[in-house]
Amino acid sequence: MAVVKATEKDIDLLARLLRAEAEGEGQLGMLLVGNVGINRVRADCSDFTDIRNISQMVYQPHAFEATIHGYFYQRARGVDKRLARRAIDGYRHWPAKYSLWYFRPEGDCPATWYDQPLVGRYKLHCFYEPTGETCDAVYHTF
Question: Is the pTM of this model over 0.90?
Answer without folding.
Answer: yes
